[in-house]
Amino acid sequence: MKLAIGTAQFGLSYGISNKHGQTSLKEIKEILKTTKKYNINLIDTASLYGQSEEILGKCLNKDNSFKIITKTPYFNGPEITSQDIIQLRTTVTTSLKKLNQKSIYGILIHNTDNLFLKNGELLLKELKKLKNESLVKKIGFSIYSPHQIDSLLDSFEFDIIQIPINILDQRLLIDGHLKKLKKSKIEIHARSIFLQGLLLMPLNEIPSFFKPIYNKLKEYHNKIRYNNITPLQAAIGFIKKIKEIDYIIIGINNKQQLTENINAYKEKIKKIDFKKFACFNEQIINPTNWKL
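Given the sequence above, the corresponding structure tokens read:
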């Protein structure tokens, strides 16, 4: 199964459609039990996800079978300094301690733009050291826009890339970047497949900020309703059919949501051409630009 668990909600009240707040420790334990039952083996977290790493550490044994991915902090200066490299290593070792793990599957640079600052290559050099020390198996990047991919492939060697992709944000599918990444044997993790829950929200609950694409969203909902498909089945089914994608990261608040996602993943849906619903307005498809 391609599904993987995103844990932003484990440490924060995260997502535009989130009505549940931060997930409780009891619920997280139930979620992890269910993931094992259905052979979901990858967990995505980050040092910036509030208490997420610490809470996971309370739930996971050192010899657990999960592939755990975490991410570096953001670096906000005009260049990468020796102090930043110290901070990077300290953050990773702290993450391992919080997660209760001797080593983990992957570490991603959370803000890829940091890599293109002066001395930015030192960040990747430090991650490679951590890899050589067997503290991590794979290293890579979390990206937000297609232009970052070409620069990364031209300049660096890496194992994993985490990308935003969903029915509205089809940029990497349409422009051929997914094929380019797979040709380079990069492991591809899809995130933001629900666009923070926007694609799952009833039309009457969508904030006015999204008025420019309201008609597109209305047509999308009409299309899937006509085909007797739920928004959840459509969002997951769209990503599931993209052969280049290795893992589909889903953010969930409780066991019930996880079960619903698993059932939607297992559902065989009709082939639908979703290309007409692609949006290229970065104010809409990049949540960091939202003004809600």
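The CA atoms of residues 31 and 37 lie 10 Å apart. Try to locate this feature in the token string yourself.
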